[in-house]
Amino acid sequence: MKTSANLSRRSFLTTAAAGAGVVLLAGCSSGSDAADEGSAGSAASGETYTIATDTTFAPFEYADENNEYVGIDIDMLYAIAEDQGFQVDLDALGFQAATEAVQSGQADGIIAGMSITEERKETFDFSDPYFDSTVCCAADPDSGITSLEDLEGLNVAVKIGTMSADWAESIADEYGFTMTTFETSDMMYQEVGTGNSAACFEDTPVMEYAIATGSVSLEVIADCGTDSEFASQYGFGVKKGENAELLEMFNAGLTNIREDGTYDEIVATYLGE
């Protein structure tokens, strides 16, 4: 859904200042540098792409105190856009709605802590992976629930369309629990907080960040492990067979910000060294 409009939300520099307090532009390639290197950025200079994302998936995407979207995914996206010479119109829709927006052509791409899976490859073309993740189960530390075995006969909260929900579904019969699905992570957390669900399933870095920042009063009781089929890598996605130039630019920009240290600065801002 390319347009010739200017960036409607904010420049990457503003994003970095709000979410990190770090100048993330240092060392990024300029548009002329990209052109010199044969980058796809020169061909799409000035283009604006509509990129769909989640609403609450900290530390990857979330609204800060100024209601500006920040996080690893967001800061990385704007750094790549700066490096490759294109602009971004960010559309925070929620994960499921974001995937549907790309599939229907209402958005050009999606960045939302989206796991690269064989099933999703049937409808999306993915970038190079940019983050490794596992999924976990968390419960109230005062609930007496300390393992998956303790969930027998109870209900858990899961987020629709996610790898964590897939893991929960795959072990539901084994551990004897039922599931209620939600559109966003914060809705899951509220469900556990009110006692309507005994636990929730979430991506491990997201849950650990929520616990570390005090956003939730939960503790991780189980993790799928790095060898699990539900451990995954995150990628930027476009509709299969479309927006190849955007995908090419994302990969080129990702390589550049890894090489110049910008990627590590972004991750460290939210997750520490």
Distance between the termini: 37 Å
For the biggest sheet, the summary is: 5 strands, mixed
Q: Average pLDDT value?
A: 86
Strand content: 15-25%
The stretches of 5 or more residues where confidence is low (pLDDT under 50) are: 2-43
* Overall SS class: alpha/beta
* Tally of helical runs: 9
Q: In what order do the strands lie side by side in the largest sheet?
A: 10-9-11-8-12
The arrangement of helices and strands along the chain is HHEEEHEHEEEEEHEHEHEEEHH
Helix content: 25-40%
Query: Which descriptor suits the 3D outline?
Result: globular
* Rg computed from alpha carbons, rounded to a whole number of angstroms: 19 Å
Number of strands: 14
Protein architecture, described:
The protein has 273 residues and is of the alpha/beta class. 34% of the residues lie in helices and 20% in strands. The protein contains nine helices and 14 strands. It has helices at 12-19, 31-36, 72-84, 95-103, 163-175, 185-193, 204-212, 244-259, 262-271, and strands at residues 48-53, 62-63, 69-70, 87-92, 109-110, 124-126, 131-133, 135-139, 155-159, 178-182, 199-203, 219-223, 232-234, 237-239. Strands 10-9-11-8-12 form a five-stranded mixed beta sheet, with helices on both faces. Strands 4-1-5 form a three-stranded parallel beta sheet. A hairpin with a 5-residue loop joins strand 2 (62-63) and strand 3. The radius of gyration is 19 Å and the shape is globular. Residues 2-43 have low confidence and may be disordered.
Layout of helices and strands:
Layout (H helix, E strand, L loop, with lengths): L11 H8 L11 H6 L11 E6 L8 E2 L5 E2 L1 H13 L2 E6 L2 H9 L5 E2 L13 E3 L4 E3 L1 E5 L15 E5 L3 H13 L2 E5 L2 H9 L5 E5 H9 L6 E5 L8 E3 L2 E3 L4 H16 L2 H10 L2
Parallel strand pairs: 1-4, 1-5, 9-10, 9-11
Antiparallel strand pairs: 2-3, 6-14, 7-13, 8-11, 8-12
Helix pairs in contact: 1-3, 3-8, 3-9
